[in-house]
User: What shape does this take?
Amino acid sequence: MSNRTFTMIKPDATQKNNTGAILQMINAAGFRIVAMKTTKLSAEKAGEFYAVHAARPFYAELVNFMSSGPITAAILEKENAVDDFRKLIGATNPAEAAEGTIRKLYASSIGENAIHGSDSNENAVIEGDFFFSKLEQF
Ligand code: GTP
Ligand code: MG
Assistant: This one.
């Protein structure tokens, strides 16, 4: 069990001005923000971030979407962070997401699903390092 995870508020949620409401839910659920930045991914960077999905049929769509506008990236801290955060964001497809989850409230489709959450402790570290230098991760 690790106490950190990584998240990105995706371009659809940024575009709809839902960043503040989502951050409020994240804080209310007990996560501390230990590093955060709003930035825009190039297609190359988005492709690198989601390289694990390179062989999937939706990869081009995913890369195109993730580089379509600004995102907010953050490292979050809480006991049991990875699992608890996945519960807070809900299922990948908002149609299957539980009531009260971030994706149920703010995602519009399986592709444009408002927020990312790391799926393991190992990936949380890799993804945090992708966006933040060690000096920024206090
Ligand atoms: P992330 O937290 O973003 O990693 O989502 P996830 O772990 O719930 O899902 P997964 O890692 O399997 O997929 C990564 C992202 O690819 C999803 O969040 C979606 O944005 C996108 N994606 C997954 N499946 C589909 C699909 O069938 N169609 C499209 N267009 N996008 C998809
Ligand atoms: Mg994933």
